[in-house]
Amino acid sequence: MERVYANQLNESMLGKDVEVAGWVEDVRELGAINFIIVRDVSGGVQVVVEPSMLVSNGIKVTRQSSIKVRGRVQRSRSVNYPFEIRAESLHTYSIAKHPLPIDPTGRVSASLDARLDARALDLRNPRVAAIFKLRHNTLQIIRRFLVEKGFIEVNTPKIIGSASEGGANLFKFSYFNNRQAYLAQSPQLYKEQLTLALDRVFEIASYYRAEKSHTTRHLNEFVSVDIEAAYMDADDVMGIAEELIHNLIRELKSKCSKELSLVGSDIDVPTLPFPKVTYTQAVEMLKKEYNMSIEVGDDLSDHALRLLGERMKSFYFIVDWPTALKPFYIYERDDDPRFSYSFDLQYGALELASGGKRQHDASRLRKRLVEQGLNPEEFRDHLKVFEWGMPPHAGWGLGLDRLMMVICNVKNVREVVLYPRDTERLSP
Q1: Is-contact 57 83, C-beta < 8 A?
Q2: Cα angle vertex 215, ends 395, 306, to 5°?
Q3: Are 406 and 267 in contact, with CB atoms under 8 Å apart?
Q4: Which of 30, 63, 115, 233 suits a disulfide with 122, CB 3.0-4.6 Å?
Q5: Which of 147, 117, 115, 145 has its CA nearest to residue 131?
Q6: 274 closest CA partner among 312, 300, 303
């Protein structure tokens, strides 16, 4: 008999025999008859069972045990379950050993660390599962959107021989004939090279940064959504970013309203276009309205971004950053080379994406490398591509994990990552 999921039970199945499988979430013993709630990934179903069915090889079936039930669908008097199954047989696959490390129903609260230590069990909590269903749908929507925009999905190396953005925050190791190698911190150099022939590319993958800080928004392993497009400038790719976010949230609110409700998210579909604030305007705002000690050329601290976030509640761009604050591949403005064709996409105080127009002239790229104290010889494989007719191009990298924090209305990035990695967590 084909397995039926809990959310598939409907009026047409009344009086028919079905088979469901999942875990025992609750047991109500009422003498001659018992009720159990069997939950699977789609939801829960009430099952009427005889007491003897809840004993397997002399051992009583416990909550969270994995079982299979076969029985007839009938109407239920429960306000939560319109249909129920009167069990004809119950097979136990695995009995859960108690006490469990956490209560996956969420009725007994547990610390985030305890939940992460038992992540597989934690996912039996409908609210937690909803986060990762939303993440799944987010990835599907992003991929479809970018493909429809003419982007080709690519896979770039995660073991690299030179630093993509300089030597900061890199995981280093020696393996290849004692040559220094690194875990990729971004696909930046490769995706730029690929615009030479593929025009528009995107990648969704894990990257690695040796972040020393232990904050609610940083991890050592993270997932980034990256695009790069030939014959586009900073404004063009900003338009793609804001359209993607707008369409994504609109689709999630339409298709995933149940999951959004479970996680307590009431995120609004943002209005297009997103507001834009220049870096210089942001500095002046911080000085005048918040009396901050900051000058043009200084980076925007976490505190500064929090203050800006009080004014800019939703999605917005900070544009035209100082060239010196951006990586070597960012293109300086034609009208004032002290500033660059660059942007950060923010949600309040949270940086979600960074991007801009890239250098496409090999000689200017070499000059920028030297200005930032980097050795052009270490980037020779990258630089030679720019002598083969490199088109002008632009792109961005979007932190998927941080975007999920916004969508799911959570304050800690570890909530939206299945198995987060930071300076204190290497398992499970």
Answers
A1: no
A2: 70
A3: yes
A4: 115
A5: 115
A6: 312
Q: How many residues does the chain have?
A: 428
Question: Could you list the residue range(s) of the whole structural domain that residue 166 is in?
Answer: 126-275+312-416
Whole-angstrom distance, CA of residue 32 vs CA of residue 52:
10
CATH of the domain at 74: 2.40.50.140
pLDDT digits (tens, 9 = 90+) for 277-321: 999 999 999 999 999 999 999 999 999 999 999 999 899 999 999
Are residues 138 and 220 part of one domain? yes
- How far is Cα 146 from Cα 140, in angstroms, rounded to an integer? 10
- Residue 392: count of CB within 10 angstroms of its CB: 16
* Cβ atoms 413, 219 nearer than 8 A: yes
Please indicate, yes or no, whether residues 257 and 375 belong to a single structural domain of this protein: yes
Note whether 76 and 159 are same-domain residues.
no
Q: Tell me which residue of 209, 181, 255, 119 sits closest to 397, measured CA to CA.
A: 209
The answer to whether 345 touches 351, Cβ cutoff 8 Å, is yes
Q: Is the peptide bond before 391 cis (omega within 30 degrees of 0)?
A: no
pLDDT of residue 163 exceeding 90: no
Could you tell me if residue 330 is left (phi over 0), alpha (psi between -120 and 50 degrees) or otherwise beta? Answer: beta
Model confidence at 176: pLDDT above 70: yes
What is the torsion angle, in degrees rounded to the nearest 10, for the CA atoms of residue 248, residue 250, residue 252 and residue 254? -150
pLDDT at 233: 98
CA distance 86 to 32: 14
Residue listed under structure tokens 């392993």 = 221
CA dihedral 396, 397, 401, 406 (to 10 degrees): -20
The type of residue at 296 is V
3-state secondary structure of 59: strand
CA gap 428, 414 in Å, rounded: 13
The answer to whether position 364 is within a domain reads: yes
